[in-house]
């Protein structure tokens, strides 16, 4: 766990030092669990969003996008179930007076068990060397199996207790596991209680006439209330989907782990409308499609796993998470949910207006079922960033820190570096920047020795460095350096655009899905 903690601290430090993520309102000592994306962070975030949008909307003829308002009529959240059911189980420690999510305390206990498993695997890998079969070891080692069985039993009990809303058993589980307060070490706990997560606000100029509103806790409802508007104006036939990205807000009591769990965050969601009775087929298909999207990034198949829900939300008949191995363990990255017809039927009930589809093949009207894919953009940012941050030992013992972003997601695709700041080299370098910037983000850097500039661009995740030297003036060639291999090639200036574009375009990722 110490190694994981150290790695996560490096992620947070690097994100600030190199202009990716800043604490919000830092000059006023910050605001808990609220962060600002800096110049490089916003570029990375935009690239991730573009990759999702193009894969979801541009490549599917039957999926369109919208951008619904954050403010919605307050009855929306009554119909969706958020007013009555959008709660977290909270528990207070009597000694420290600190409040925690009860389920998170249990999940963190299980994460420690999983860390023991990983330690056993690492020890065995070191012991057996090249002959080590990790899959067989995990499937046969008695200590690993015992730890795994214990973890699964704990999570199953937690899920069942939460599903039955048996909060007394959740507290009993915490006590049986002898979970202590992270701050005080005390095991003196209050009863578990439910806490609603929605932020309240008001709409109106006068306090007397203002309407009570909520900041939306999810983006999905904006899609559901616009179902008929989109279906009719876009002349969509089932099955079809509606996608959107946007901010959501949750009054998280336990907001932690950097940008993993924040009070203001961004979602990328798609609601896929289907005929009733076909949800199992489409649920399985979207699980497969979404995993392909992740794997196309090349971050390693072993970094992902599916986790099927023991406890289902009030609207679902099936749900699974795609979990990613963050520096602090496997955590939810994306959810795929079979939402049945709950949302549209509920909005029908509360509005008195039909939200149905006439199916010409069935010759009947019905309320469509929905399969949802929902991914946190901030969590995806953290997954990409933390997975990419690498420290390498080079020949001769020197080290370098490099962000090995998937090329298409990197904030800057190329850096142009004049070898010296004289003899016409800066002028030629500037003409190269002017030519390349129309096709991808290109930066100019002339400060420090070229080796230091390479290291700086490595730490920013820039895939290619282009060095302009005196030979460039004679034959119009430059040195093209590739980030990961550090290989350098002499390339004609006129060939730069095609060579770089082939490797850094979003299209190169999309073709792998």
What does this structure look like?
The protein has 513 residues and is an alpha+beta fold. It contains 18 helices and 23 strands. It has three domains: 46-68 and 215-390, Bira Bifunctional Protein, Domain 2 (BirA Bifunctional Protein, domain 2), CATH 3.30.930.10; 91-192, no CATH class; 394-510, 3-Layer(aba) Sandwich (Rossmann fold). Helix content is 40%, strand content 24%. Helix 5 (102-128) runs antiparallel to helix 7, helix 5 (102-128) crosses helix 8 and helix 7 (142-163) packs antiparallel against helix 8. The longest helix is centred in the first third of the chain and has 27 residues, at 102-128.
Looking at CATH, the homologous superfamily of the largest domain is: Bira Bifunctional Protein, Domain 2
In the sheet with the most strands, the strands line up as 3-9-10-16-13-12-11
- Share in helix: 40-55%
Beginning-to-end CA distance, first to last residue: 34 Å
Q: Averaged pLDDT, please? A: 92
Structural class: alpha+beta
How many helices? The count is 18
CATH class descriptor of the largest domain: Alpha Beta
Say how many strands there are.
23
Low-confidence stretches: none
The best one-word shape is globular
Radius of gyration: 26 Å
What is the architecture of the largest domain at the second tier of CATH?
Answer: 2-Layer Sandwich
CATH topology of the largest domain: BirA Bifunctional Protein, domain 2
Kindly estimate the percentage of residues that lie in beta strands according to DSSP: 15-25%
Q: How many structural domains? A: 3
Largest beta-sheet details: 7 strands, mixed
């Amino acid at each position: 766990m110490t190694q994981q903690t150290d790695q996560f601290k490096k992620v947070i430090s690097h994100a600030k030092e190199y202009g990716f993520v800043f604490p919000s309102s830092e000059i006023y000592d910050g605001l808990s669990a609220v962060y600002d994306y800096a110049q490089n962070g916003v570029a990375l975030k935009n690239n991730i969003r573009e990759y999702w949008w193009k894969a979801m909307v541009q490549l599917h003829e039957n999926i369109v996008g919208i951008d619904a308002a954050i403010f919605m009529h307050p009855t929306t959240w009554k119909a969706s179930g958020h007013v009555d059911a959008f709660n977290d189980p909270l528990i207070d420690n009597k000694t420290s007076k600190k409040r925690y999510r009860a389920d998170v305390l249990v999940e963190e206990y299980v994460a420690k068990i999983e860390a023991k498993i990983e330690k056993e695997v690492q020890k065995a890998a070191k012991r057996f060397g090249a002959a080590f079969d990790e899959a067989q070891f995990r499937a046969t080692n008695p200590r690993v199996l015992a730890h795994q069985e214990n973890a699964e039993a704990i999570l199953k009990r937690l899920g069942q207790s939460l599903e039955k809303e048996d909060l007394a058993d959740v507290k009993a589980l915490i006590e049986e596991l002898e979970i202590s307060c992270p701050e005080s070490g005390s095991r003196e706990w209050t009863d578990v209680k439910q806490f609603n997560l929605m932020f309240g606000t008001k709409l109106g100029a006068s306090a007397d006439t203002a309407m009570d509103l909520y900041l939306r806790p999810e983006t999905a409802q904006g899609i559901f209330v616009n179902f008929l508007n989109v279906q009719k104006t876009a002349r969509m036939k089932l099955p079809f989907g509606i996608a959107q990205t946007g901010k959501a807000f949750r009054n998280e009591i336990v907001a932690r782990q950097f940008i993993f769990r924040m009070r203001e965050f961004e979602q990328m969601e798609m609601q896929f409308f289907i005929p009733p009775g076909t949800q199992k087929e489409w649920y399985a298909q979207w699980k497969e499609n979404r995993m392909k999207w992740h794997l196309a990034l090349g971050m390693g198949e072993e970094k992902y796993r599916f986790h099927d829900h023991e406890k289902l939300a009030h609207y679902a008949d099936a749900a699974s998470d795609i979990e990613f191995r963050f520096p602090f363990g496997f955590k939810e990255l994306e959810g795929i949910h079979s939402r049945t017809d709950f949302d549209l039927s509920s909005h029908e009930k509360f509005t008195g207006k039909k939200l149905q589809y006439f199916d010409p093949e069935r010759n009947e009207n019905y309320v469509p079922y929905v399969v949802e894919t929902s991914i946190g953009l901030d969590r995806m940012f953290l997954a990409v960033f933390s997975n990419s941050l690498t420290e390498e030992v080079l020949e001769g013992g020197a080290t370098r820190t490099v962000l090995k972003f998937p090329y298409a997601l990197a904030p800057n695709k190329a850096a142009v570096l004049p070898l010296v700041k004289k003899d016409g080299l800066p002028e030629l370098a500037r003409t190269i920047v002017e030519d390349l910037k129309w096709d991808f983000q290109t930066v100019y850097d002339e400060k420090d020795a070229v080796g230091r500039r390479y290291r700086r661009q490595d730490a920013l995740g820039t895939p290619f460095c282009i060095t302009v030297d005196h030979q460039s003036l004679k034959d119009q060639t430059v040195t093209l350096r590739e980030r990961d291999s550090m290989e350098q090639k002499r390339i004609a200036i006129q060939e730069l655009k095609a060579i770089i574009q082939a490797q850094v375009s979003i299209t190169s990722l999309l073709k792998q899905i």
